[in-house]
């Protein structure tokens, strides 16, 4: 797997699947479509509210395929995800391929709960992204 392979967009499985986060980071919400990646799991991470994508032969990661990102937006998202993640192009359902951020560190033995994040953490998380975005400029 390489991040240089052709892809149909960015496979977002965690906080980037939320329009509020994309709006804060990019100043817009690109087109998104539901997507799944077999052989992967969206795991909770120790001590943080965001998840990581980890290999699991029996898993299926739910997310969205974000299309229409330009080179500057891709660089911004790469910087935002930082060195804790590797980038690779993964096969997705429907024959699509998505560039994805793969977690490199330790993960919890349970899946991340996107609905719980949306209900309890999303607003505070978006507010925490604002200073990073301003500093990036």
From TrEMBL:
From which organism does this entry originate?
A: Actinomadura parmotrematis
Q: Which domain of life is it from?
A: Bacteria
Name of the protein this chain belongs to: Putative gamma-glutamylcyclotransferase
* Keywords annotated in UniProt: Transferase
CDD domains in UniProt = GGCT_like
Q: Do you know which InterPro entries this protein is assigned to?
A: AIG2-like, AIG2-like_dom, GGCT-like, GGCT-like_sf
- Every copy of the Gamma-glutamylcyclotransferase AIG2-like domain together lies at 10-105
Q: Which Pfam families match?
A: GGACT (PF06094)
Query: Is the Transferase keyword given for this protein?
Result: yes
Q: Does the keyword Transferase apply?
A: yes
